[in-house]
Amino acid sequence: MVDDVPNVAHGGGGTAGGDLQSRRLLRVYEFKEGKEGWRELLAFVREVGKVVEEEDHHPTILISPSSDYKPLISLPLSTRSYVVELATHTHTPLPPYPLPTKGDKMRPGVTGKDLKLAERIESVWEETTCGRGAVQMKMESG
Q: GO molecular function terms here (predicted)?
């Protein structure tokens, strides 16, 4: 996903006209089972927390054993691991373009703030896990 961020930020990236309203960014990170996986997960979430505070943009974070995790789409996850799901969107994004006509409302969606946070979290993932492990992505629309 990070490879596509500049394209999305400039109106491309597979969405009609780059419209990212009524959408959110969502990423699923998988960690090993046992104490080692749990420690790695906690280190990752701790570092994500620092980035979140620096960016002042707070995602939804779900931590679960993979056996209890219920993704919206099928993901190839181990049944014996831990999962961290991170989702971000902006509650009050810029208005849609063209500008809304009378009666149309701005909708929550993905903005540059979300893209920047996602890029920084991807860097934390690489640093924390040294690039090990599976990373899954879900695309979701509102």
A: 4-alpha-hydroxytetrahydrobiopterin dehydratase activity
Instruction: Tell me the longest C-alpha to C-alpha distance in the chain.
Output: 56
| CATH number for the domain that contains residue 137 | 3.30.70
Q: Which of 8-17, 25-34, 37-46 has the lowest mean pLDDT?
A: 8-17
Kindly provide the b/e burial profile for residues 50-78, where b requires at least 16 CB atoms within 10 angstroms of the residue's own CB: ebbeebebebeeeeeebeebeeeeeeebe
Distance CA 40, CA 120 (A): 18
Q: How many CB atoms lie within 10 A of CB 122?
A: 17
Full domain range(s) for residue 129: 2-12+26-141
Please, what is the Cα angle at 41 between 51 and 64, to 5 degrees? Answer: 110
